[in-house]
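Quick board copy: two proteins, each given as sequence then tokens.
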Amino acid sequence: MIRSIKSNPTIKLLGICFGHQIIAQALGGEVKKSSKGWGLGVSTTNVSTDSIPVWANLNKKEQLNLIVIHQDQVIEAPKHSHVILKNDFCPNYMLNITPNILTIQGHPEFNKAYLQSLMNIKQDIIPKTTLLEATKSLEKHTDEKIIAHWFSEFLSQK
């Protein structure tokens, strides 16, 4: 199914978190549990200016803050994909795979209160120091509106 979407430019596909991972793996990338532990809290990512698509070049920000909660991540991106967002913890944070597939590791659909609730539910399986750092990171602003705008622009491209 994903391969047929990849070859049909009229169909657009978005993948968020696990969707990001499964699409990347289905197209030849590699997904593994991160040796760095949990990605949790508000994560700062860098905009990759060398491969940013035209539809995403709508602001001059060099970094975006987004909510994350994951252990697995894309270790190796599929061939012909372009990294749009990256950081040291997650080097394949947001991928544009062909003109019609866009994936992201973070959760632009979450708000901080929802993440705090998830962290409370999972407090028995997440290391205490990771929870403390993630809770402190919730003080940062988040840029989910920029990602929502990028999604809208991506989906409206022909």
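And the next:
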Amino acid sequence: MFRSSSLVFAFTGLVSIVNAQSAVSGTWAQCGGIGYAGPTVCVSGTVCTFLNAYFSQCLPSDSAPSSTATSSSPGSTSSASAANFWFSFGDSYTQTAFTPSGNPPQIGQPLGNPPYPGGTTTGGPNWIDFDTVTFNTSLILTWNYAYGGATIDASLAPPFAPTVLSLTDQVNEFLNGTANKPATAPWTNENALFSIWIGINDLSWSWWQTGDRLAYNDVLLDAEFALVEQLYAVGARNFLFLNVPPIQRTPYFASLGPTNVTGPILESVIEDFNTKLATAANNLTNTFDDVQTFYWDSYLTFNEILDDPTAFGFTNVTTFGSAPGLFWGNDNQGLHPSSAAHEIFGQGIAAVLADTIW
């Protein structure tokens, strides 16, 4: 099955969720924290438990830590056995600075380490933070292997520094660790989701290459889906793919000026990559009849917001910083969306995943 969603559908699908949670937060949902504007009262049988300045969560009364997240037992198999698992791969749009060797995701620390929202590029929660603790309908434990600056494979598109972990490196981290289903992550075919948001750095740093640039997209995607097949081989069956946003519209690329050739060339390269990504994701279900794929169209979503920002609560989409109303965050580059933008992304992605265990 292949599922896709535009932003319009995303908001439509979430109306009932938002209305239902307007009075109380459900089990495992967020109920407080810096920047949080939702309900602070938890559903009966749960306790709004302070975990850190950014995050309080509605935890079942019999599993809430006595004080803070650090007081819960790392790796508790009782918490893990009741969870759904999310294994995430990507770049700076997804990163939370998770370290696989640190504390694992668990009740009270659903993204493991560092404490929620982690090391993001937004100045606050990003989309996977929101989908793990705000738009979730079950206990989700998220292993987020995403790494800032990542490309699909360093041998195809070298990252800005040799220490950056590519998608290939990230998948290998998973295969050499959590793929083995330790007590902290007893995931199964049914209760695990694998998401990949990659390609931004591959395309933004290679648009200028000579030769058949669109054929190079095929090379990149062949490498990505070879990794997907490795994930399938160890039991992955549910995949979420996110395409490349219109990064030619970021303040950074816009600052290069209207006569710069980057924008039009980059736009055509991204659109070609995204078309081929959607085809490859759809073909995955034809190759493996036990696979379910989901697809979130970030390119469409970004363009909808950037074309009509006030409709989405933004007052400025051309500059970046930490002021309210800005679509682009304070990253000193003008390349990354703000936390407010990521909340909208999280809503859209949650709608794509609607009617699943997530």
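Board note added afterward: The first strand starts at residue 2 and ends at 5.
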